[in-house]
Amino acid sequence: MNPSLKLATVVLIAFEISFTQVLTVNLALIGFSLIVLVVQRIHFKTLLWLTAVPLFLASALVWSLALQGDASHHFLAVIFTRMFVYVYLGATFTQTTQPLALARSLEQNAKLPAKFAYGFLAAFNLLPKIRAEVATIHAAALMRGQVLHFWSPQLYFKVILAAMNWSDQLADAMTSHGFVEGAPRTYAVTIPLRRRDWLLCGLGFVVVQIGLFVGLP
Amino acid sequence: MQRWHIRDIILVTILAIFMGVIFWAVGPLYAVLTAALAPAGLQPLANELLLGIWVMAGPLAGFIIRIPGSATLGEFLGSAVEMFLGGTWGASTLISGAVQGIGSELGFAAVGYKVYNWLTLTLSALTTTLVTFLWDYFRSGYNAYHLGFLLVLLVVRFASIFVFGGILTRLITNLLTRAHVLPATSKN
Amino acid sequence: MATITIQHLTYAPPARETPVLKDLTATFRGGRFSLLTGPSGSGKTTLLRLIAGLTPLPTTGTITFDDQALASFPATTHSRRVALLFQEPSTQFTMDTVTNELRFVLENQAVDPAQMPARIDAALAFVGIAKLRDRSLMQLSGGEQQKVALASIVAMDSDVILLDEPFASIDPPTRQVLMTKLVQLCHERHKTVILADHDLSGYDQWVDHLTVLDHGMATQLSAAATQARLAAFTPERLRLTQVQLPAPDTPQVLTSHQLGLRRGTRQLLRPQDLAILAHKTTLITGPNGSGKSTFFRALVRLSSYDGTITYRQQDIQKLRRRTYARHVGLMFQAAQAQFLNVTLGEELALSQKNGQHAYFTPDRVAAALKALQLNGREDQVIYSLSSGQQKKFQLLCMLMMAPDVLLLDEPLKGLDLASIHAVRQLLTTTQADLKLTLVLISHQLSGLDSFIDYHLALADQQFSYQAQEVRHES
């Protein structure tokens, strides 16, 4: 399915179920997402992790709601399952979509200015360097007898200086590689936006609407 | 009005990734806090206490890249990065990112993107608190809490956002201003 | 083929009063290989960035490509005229893989997608990196990244190719390949190549013209004068008359067992046992990109390694990080990585507070600052210092910490002779008084003789201690 459309569908459904309380729809979405994930051959470990985290947090949240509030059992069940919908539904997107494909699709199909798509990618691909930089800053501080914590301004100060440096370098490199903001570009890889994508998107949406409509009291 | 250039977009994203890497290190603390507070039914407090770190990318980006929309974009791109790094919240991360970003953006918008000082950061902390709280009111079922507990959560959330998005951000931007990488005056 | 003419160019970077380039006039002839040289800070990067159009031209001065002003070309055709290959290999790509980067470059030039595969294949084949096509850019070595950067420029088919110190961290075989390709681009495809390098060694067989940049002005040498100048440039010889092989019973401070290092898939160091000797000064030499800095990073637990490293018989992985960091310190090659504060005064205060204050009394610090010509600058912002001043100040800050073992990665880089002298003096005295263990990586070799006890050479993925005088190879 087209990445932009897929993302829009997933986000819109997640948004909608945040404001509605229909247990059956939540359960149906969980079931549907799980099927998609299994069909896409998700790693068992990933699935376990995607289950353990919401289980832990949702349990804690529901427990708190039960103790500190006056929620009905139905409401607690909705909140509990909602967490799983977020995570599984989100995974159906992230497990099947690469950042590059999304960026290309947003540029081509959603007409996002190329500078946003490629600026994001350029920074995203720097991730290993960014991680190493944080470790280096911590180590450099220790060698001077200073422990940096996540509340130390100096940690962020150094991080921002590095970020400014690299964004200058990357922006220059993009310019040197012929990137011009707002200039027409061709596409080496075309991301198709087929009628089938619209149909799937529309169908999914209609089904969820009907479910919500029927399920609402 | 200033336009977004490729350099700003990259900077905002790198900043967001940096914040994500730092926040990653706080993950265990969050888990421990949750586990410790959950039995007493105080789990949301863990969330409230640490929320300030997570939403810091907004005011930082807003203060450093003085272009309308930078606070929103900083938070939003941070959530996009988190989503692709296998953050467990999947697509709802994007929504939260947008909500938090808009929350902190309102503070900068309130002063017309002209003033960059304590007032701006305090306003931004306030708007972030209100907007994100409203979001959690629906999303996380906060509407089911007793009013007293709800107020405690609100106060703790504001305190956390003010400490990280206000005080810490101010300290950081002070260092940047003194190092001459940010303009010294509050007007751009 | 494009001839570049620069006339009366004066340029001062923002927030700096003194111009870097002063009424500079020069011509770089089309289809030729020109080498641009000059001491660090002489404005080589500034000049290349102006030619590349990355820095807007000041009102005084013109740069023309075959008599046409650069600014008169539409932005979209810019990359066909000129492209710059940067010093730092890892931050010049937008995409994740080699092929995708080349696609990006061609998309930017609005090339018909149907033509792209052929052009990408041709560019990769020209540089000889067809086998890297699907590799992730971030996992390539610096040398491989520079090759991809060159392939991008070849794919763009830019008339003028600018290179800013492209070999700074590149191993000699890769440098050789890149040089061959650049000369080929000149001779066969009539590209104009301008390469900036402060080190003139190994260019004599390749370069047509030498342009020397000094005090903001350019001097262009004739072909004959260029050859004479390059021939006269002999790489510094390492003269170590006092080094010896370590005696078997010399106390060791850092000991590694079957230590192996790699970068990505490439083996930098084959597993070997190695000892760093206590209270002595050891010099490490080896070609660029051979893994010297990686070795230092492994010693301070910033890089992963195979085997074990022990510090005074304790596995360094089992020591608390904050304890270990006080015993084994690293003076980073990039000076700014060392600093945590804004002004020199604050930075000194930090080292004073946490360092060896019994030895580094205020008087001694003041004397050291004076010797390094950094006195009276306590309120200055560190980031406004020149790179040489930063380097000297960085050294002082780390010496004041006086860790048991101090690793120094290129401590003399970019320093003038007077500064080198002062730094060596400071190192010698402190080492003698505090019985520190010093380990240096240095390409700057002059005047190190009396100061070095042991010489550890890295060659063919193996470290070995050297006896007596050995010629330095890179």
From TrEMBL, chain B:
The keyword Membrane applies. Coiled coil: none annotated. The keyword Transmembrane helix applies. Keywords: Membrane, Transmembrane, Transmembrane helix. InterPro entries: ABC_thiamin-permease_prd. The chain crosses the membrane at residues 9-37, 49-68, 80-103, 115-135, 147-168. This is ABC-type cobalt transport system, permease component. It comes from Levilactobacillus namurensis DSM 19117.
Automatic annotation (TrEMBL), chain C:
Residues 4-240, 254-474 form the ABC transporter domain. It holds the Pfam family ABC_tran. It comes from the Bacteria. GO terms for cellular component: ATP-binding cassette (ABC) transporter complex. The keyword Translocase applies. Its main location: membrane. It is a peripheral membrane protein. InterPro entries: AAA+_ATPase, ABC_transporter-like_ATP-bd, ABC_transporter-like_CS, ABC_transpr_CbiO/EcfA_su, ECF_ABC_transporter_ATP-bd, P-loop_NTPase. It is found in: Cell membrane. One of its GO terms (molecular function) is ATP binding. Keywords: ATP-binding, Cell membrane, Membrane, Nucleotide-binding, Translocase, Transport. The keyword Plastid does not apply. PANTHER family: HEAVY METAL TRANSPORTER. Belongs to the ABC transporter superfamily. This is ABC-type cobalt transport system, ATPase component.
